[in-house]
Design goal:
By secondary structure, the protein is α+β, with helices and mostly antiparallel strands. The chain is 39% helix and 20% strand. Strands 1-5-6-10-9-8-7 form a seven-stranded mixed beta sheet, sandwiched between helices. A three-stranded antiparallel beta sheet has the order 2-4-3. The chain is rod-shaped, with a radius of gyration of 41 Å.
């Protein structure tokens, strides 16, 4: 009788062990491994109990065999139900797993060129400048002649101008804050090579004093490479009034570059531009190495940023100002140039390839 109790307890212990382990089997592979462990013909635990029947007395064999068979059927039934439950719990093909964390929502960024442009506009707006925009399709007078570049002037060769196949007549570029009344309208034959043309339009319409900043797109016949592109952005500043000097120009430039690049020094080097006299190239001390010399400044400690100078008397005469009564300064540079220096970008093409991996590196406003 004690042997029969021992046999029943063995079956009960095996059943309890199976039930605990089945509850923990969460995959098809785990369920299959568990079924093999208990029901395998060669090494299964239940199969091992069946092999012991031959050593038992007939009455004990009959009773113990019934217990083992019942256990085997229970295990087979439980395994099949567990498999069905796993199949039923699977999501349909292509379904969204709602238990997964949500995807991070992408936040748009202001383009790095627009970041620099907005910062420059803010700097000059706080200094009392008027921000203007003008036509991108221009005529020869406003783009060249009024800026002291007559037809045979060699400076025209420096511009690599894109001329239109069919001239455009007329156009309205009116009013304040980027709009001017239609005045001195000529046949537009080219894409402007600089935003200085808008300075001429403004001075021909409004008397001095003048304090304007003109940002916008300009076009030149350049091949696309590391530092050139056929279309780029400029901003040019113009100040005209009585008693304007080079000291005013230098002070304005110093204020601008400190806002853009931090505590840097500037220097003015003599240069030539047909619409300014005297003219100067403006350098800043390298903001990456503090002037000590590095790869960005080519070990010189200085970075060239823009051209500037005092407005040439011939320009004043072209717009009807009296060069004996007023003077002024002007300067301009490319937005891309400033952005490349500010952010350490070595290839101008990156600004126009719309690669999100590049653009998302820049700060948001």
């Amino acid at each position: 009788m004690s042997e029969q109790v021992t046999d029943r307890s063995t079956v009960d212990a095996l059943r309890a062990d199976f039930q605990v382990r089945l509850a923990a089997a969460g995959t098809d592979a785990a369920v299959k491994a568990l079924a093999d462990e208990f029901l395998s013909r060669k090494s299964g635990s239940v199969t091992g109990l069946m092999k012991t029947l031959g050593s038992l007395a007939p009455d004990a064999r009959r009773e113990f065999g019934a217990l083992v068979n019942a256990l085997k059927q229970e295990i087979e039934t439980a395994v099949e139900e567990r498999r069905k439950a796993l199949v039923a719990s699977r999501p349909p093909a292509g379904a969204v797993d709602v238990t997964l964390p949500a995807r991070e929502r992408l936040v748009g960024h202001v383009h790095p060129l627009m970041l620099v442009r907005q910062q420059v506009e803010d700097i000059f707006a706080h200094m009392g400048y008027e921000i203007l925009e003008g036509p991108e399709v221009e005529d020869d007078f406003h783009n060249f002649e009024a800026l002291n570049m007559p037809p045979d002037h060699p400076a025209r060769d420096m511009q690599d101008t894109l001329y239109l196949g069919t001239p455009i007549v007329g156009g309205t570029w009116g009013a304040h804050k980027g709009m001017l009344p239609e005045a001195q309208v000529r046949v537009a034959t080219l894409l402007r090579t600089h935003t200085s043309a808008m300075q001429i339009r403004y001075m021909k319409t409004f008397p001095p004093p003048v304090r304007i900043l003109v940002p916008g797109r300009v076009y030149r016949r350049d091949n696309l490479d590391l530092t050139h592109t056929p279309m780029f952005q400029q901003f040019e500043a113009l100040v005209v009034g009585e008693g304007i000097t080079m000291a005013d120009l230098k002070g304005t430039l110093q204020a601008m570059v400190r806002e853009l690049f931090g505590d840097v020094k500037i220097r003015l080097r003599p240069s030539f531009f047909p619409y300014t006299e005297p003219s100067a190239e403006v350098d800043i001390s390298c903001h990456k190495c503090a002037g000590a010399g590095c790869g960005i400044c080519k070990q010189t400690g200085w970075l060239e940023i823009l051209g500037s100078g005092m407005v040439h008397p011939a320009v004043f005469e072209a717009v009807g100002y009296d060069p004996e009564k007023v003077s002024g300064f002007a300067f301009g540079t490319g937005v891309e140039r400033m952005a490349m220096l500010k952010y350490g970008v070595e290839d101008i093409r990156l600004f126009y390839e719309n690669d999100v991996r590049f653009l998302e590196q820049f700060p948001s406003l």
